Amino acid sequence: MTGDAHLNELGEFLKARRAVLSPRTVGLPDTGGPRRVPGLRRDEVALLAAISTDYYTRLEQGRTQPSAPVLAALAQVLHLGNDQRDHLFELVGRQAARPRRQVAQRVQPQLRRLLDDLDATPGVVIGRRMDILAWNPLAAALLTDFAQVPERNRNYVRILFTDPSMRTLYADWRTVTRACVSHLRTLAAKYPDDPRLTSLVGELSVQDKDFGQWWGSRHAASRTIGTKRFYHPVVGELALDWDTLTCSTNPDQELVVWTAEPGSPSYDGLRTLASWAASHLGESAAGRVT
Questions:
Q1: How far apart are CA 170 and CA 137, in angstroms?
Q2: Distance CA 73, CA 192 (A)
Q3: What phi and psi, each to the nearest 5 degrees, are found at residue 214?
Q4: Pfam families attached here (predicted)?
Q5: Which fold has domain 3-90?
Q6: Quick one: which of 226, 140, 217, 233 has its CA closest to 181?
Q7: CATH 1.10.260.40 spans which residues of the chain?
Q8: For domain 109-286, is the CATH number 3.30.450.180?
Q9: Which residues make up the CATH 3.30.450.180 domain(s) of the chain?
Q10: Tens-digit pLDDT profile for the chain (290 aa)?
């Protein structure tokens, strides 16, 4: 079979697979109205796989050769079993790498101890995919009570886009979230076969137009240190410097902290917020539920 024939067969295989899936199956809202085609539309598959509709259309038309990360994303989106996944890769002359089963993330003990010692500094431990693994009471008071967020949804980027309070908490929400999308793209390139990361990107691409636009723009943002401004409902305006400490034994985990210049209004605001947290948040605010 020629290369063109293989690509044509790939296109037919993709069309057949999306035709048997419903929006509800892949986590998309189902309006219940009539659909022009059975199963998923091309644009829906493209969004879930974090590729452009034009690129996916060319795949179905047999006009382009997909990369291994794109094939892995499509296998996840189309709910392919192992044999079907192997066939998908074979159609373009590639060997499918079995997705490795990832061990559940648990915060590293040394980061946990550091976090426990931060009485007057908000801090969170972020893992791969920017999942929130642990936090201290002041971080819960500053950002959100993470204990009230289901563990599977306890992801920093997801919270930024889905929690309406984030859009008023951050003085420049768009800059903050766009930088996070840029970092998430870096992680997606690092872990192309991570099904939960693929699912997160697809879900947010469908739910939020800004996410989809920024994901496709390939904007590169620096992620080192900086200052974030908050409009907090309890203590008012805060200007906090943030920094990260990467765990030497597990580089996928970082301790992120927010601090203020001693004697500044923001410094006093953090201490007022710490007192408020002590009286208003329960034990779960210490972030020991992961």
A1: 19
A2: 7
A3: -70, -35
A4: HTH_31, MLTR_LBD
A5: 434 Repressor (Amino-terminal Domain) (1.10.260)
A6: 217
A7: 3-90
A8: yes
A9: 109-286
A10: 445 777 888 888 888 888 888 777 766 666 556 667 678 888 888 888 878 889 999 998 888 888 888 888 888 888 887 788 888 888 877 655 555 556 678 888 889 999 999 988 999 999 988 999 999 999 999 999 999 999 989 999 999 999 999 999 999 999 999 999 988 888 877 777 777 887 888 888 878 888 878 877 766 555 556 899 999 999 999 999 999 988 888 888 999 999 999 999 999 999 999 999 888 876 556 665 44
- Please identify which residue in the block is written with the tokens 């969170």: 124
Query: CA 218 to CA 220: how far, in whole Å?
Result: 6
